[in-house]
Every structure is written in C-alpha cells, then in structure tokens.
C-alpha cells in the first residue's frame, strides 16, 4: 500500500530543495555538528563467513522525534559526498533537527576489508551495511527514515528502500541511472551534449572538432611530439593506443564536468569553478575563433582537461 503521508513528505523535501540557496561555504557543511563513528560489520552478510571490518560514518544526532536521513555512500571517501551535499547538511538536517548519517561504502575511504580481497565488493553487501548501521542509529522504532543519494549512491538509495522497506520509509534517488542498462547506452552522452549546447549552441561542435583532429593525427606519428607539447603527458606518445587513451582522458573530464555543473565552486576532483560547463564552452569558443588552427583547437581541449585535473596549477 502507498503511504501517502510519506509521499507528501518526500514531495515537500524536493520542493524545498528548489528554494534552498546553497553557497560555497554551505557545501563544506557544518562539520562541527557531525562526529565520526565506526561500525563493526560482517565481511559477508549473506553467507555469514567469519570476519568483520569497520565501516565509517559521519553522524549528526538530532531530535528523537524528528525524521532520520541516511546518505548511501558512493564510490569514494564519504567526506567527498558530505562536502557536496549541502542541501542535506545545511538545510534538511537543521530544518528538521534530524539525525543524519553519511555512511561510507565498503572498500572506499577508511572502510577497508583486511586481509584484502575483491570477493565482497558488492552493492548487496553494501546495502546490508547500510541497513544494520541505520538500525543502530535510528532514534526510535517509529522514526521515519529517508535514504538520499546521487548517481550510484542514488541507485543504492532506491535499492535500499526496495530491499529494506521495513527500515526505509522513502528514498530520494538523484540522477540515479537505474534504467541505464535498458537503453542504447547513449543516454548519458546525449544529456552531456545537451548541457553544453544549452550554454552555447556551437559548443558541442567546437569540442567535437578537437576530437576529430586527434583522430586524424593518431595515424600520423610525426605529429606525436607536437601533441606532447600541448597535452604534457607523463609518458611519451608513441602509438595510436596512446592517442586513444588521451581521448578517454579528455572525455572523462568533459563528461564529469557536466555532472558537477554546480553554480558555485566545488571540490570534486579538485577545485572546479562555478558553472564549469559555461567555462569550458568559453574556452573552446576562444580557441576555435578565427584565426584558428588545429593546434589552437587542441589547446582548448587541453585547457578544459587542465581545469578539471589540475585546478591547483601544479
């Protein structure tokens, strides 16, 4: 049966998200309100093989009569997602005086299994970690629990609600690619292209022109030295495979920038400026403007990648 009160509550949370202004300072979060805790978890929840390890969580203790929010950790140290979730740390938590838990995903950050083995790096095992820790932190049996996550963490929030409906009352799965396997695999690329096109209609074409140049130069070894001068790789470019890896390196930057196109500066994989898609399009517009040539266009791609990978300029 549908819990209409819970549906209305989650709808209210989503509406509040659109009206809550979050500054750069807010993204860093009120760290003084949170304490670091470690929870002993079975290495294997499913087969109950012997062995335990510690899962890290950042926890805010709230009013026992308030709701509880659980951030289902992604593929990285939990502090990274804590700092990027100002809506939860700065707005929802204080607004409802809620208990909030950011739970780290096993195998990431400090939540490591020893002796090391890949056997238990599994989303189902992670969900069991979240369920057990949520049960331990839940202030009262009647406390409503809302799972929150983004991207892969958003998928986990949705799965958390589905697998443990007796623990989780609702879930907010932001940008969760739960149906990605059922399309042609181009959905994410299409959205990224649209993001750049909405900033500058010529931006996707400007970026594509750079990749077309790289593709053409891949078959011309005499150009590899010049490419090294532009992109400054750690190792020499000696083959077409190296060019393909360079393309992947640039593509990852361009696609991830679209994912983290926040209106404020954010510490993602380094310090990104506010609206980095806009900045990227401005770079490509400058480097492809007349009089342009292949090397200036490629330099534009380099500047975008450098903004993403090397924000400190080191």
TrEMBL record:
A Pfam match: Peptidase_S28
Gene Ontology molecular function, alphabetical: dipeptidyl-peptidase activity; serine-type exopeptidase activity
Organism superkingdom: Eukaryota
InterPro entries per the UniProt record, alphabetical: AB_hydrolase_fold, Peptidase_S28
Alphabetically ordered keywords of this record: Glycoprotein, Hydrolase, Protease, Signal
GO BP, sorted A to Z: proteolysis
Gene3D superfamilies: alpha/beta hydrolase
Signal peptide: 1-20
Similarity-based family: Belongs to the peptidase S28 family.
Protein name: Lysosomal Pro-X carboxypeptidase
Species assigned in the record: Fabrea salina
Organism phylogeny: Eukaryota, Sar, Alveolata, Ciliophora, Postciliodesmatophora
């Amino acid at each position: 049966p549908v819990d209409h009160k819970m549906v209305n509550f989650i709808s209210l949370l989503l509406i509040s998200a659109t009206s809550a202004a979050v500054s750069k300072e807010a993204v860093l979060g009120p760290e003084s309100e949170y304490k670091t805790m470690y929870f002993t978890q079975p290495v294997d929840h499913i087969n109950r093989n012997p062995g335990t390890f510690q899962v890290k969580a950042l926890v805010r203790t709230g009013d026992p009569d308030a709701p509880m929010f659980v951030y289902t950790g992604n593929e990285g140290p939990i502090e990274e997602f804590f700092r990027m979730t100002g809506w939860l740390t700065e707005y929802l938590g204080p607004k409802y005086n809620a208990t909030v838990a950011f739970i780290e995903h096993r195998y990431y950050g400090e939540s490591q299994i020893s002796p090391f083995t890949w056997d238990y790096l599994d989303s189902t095992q992670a969900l069991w970690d979240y369920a057990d820790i949520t049960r331990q932190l839940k202030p009262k049996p009647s406390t409503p629990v809302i799972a929150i996550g983004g991207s892969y963490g958003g998928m986990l929030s949705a799965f958390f609600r589905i697998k443990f409906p007796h623990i989780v009352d609702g879930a907010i799965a932001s940008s969760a690619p739960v149906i990605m396997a059922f399309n042609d695999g181009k959905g994410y690329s299409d959205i990224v292209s649209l993001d750049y096109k909405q900033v500058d209609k010529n931006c996707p074409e400007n970026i594509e022109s750079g990749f077309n140049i790289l593709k053409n130069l891949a078959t011309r070894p005499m150009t590899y030295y010049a490419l090294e001068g532009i992109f400054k790789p750690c190792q020499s470019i000696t083959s077409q495979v190296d060019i393909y890896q360079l393309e992947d390196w640039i593509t990852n930057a361009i696609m991830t920038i679209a994912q983290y196109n926040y209106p404020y500066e954010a510490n993602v994989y380094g310090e990104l400026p506010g609206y980095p898609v806009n900045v990227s399009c401005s770079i490509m517009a400058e480097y492809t403007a007349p009089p342009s040539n292949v090397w200036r266009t490629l330099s534009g791609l380099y500047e975008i990648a450098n903004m993403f990978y090397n924000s400190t300029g080191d």
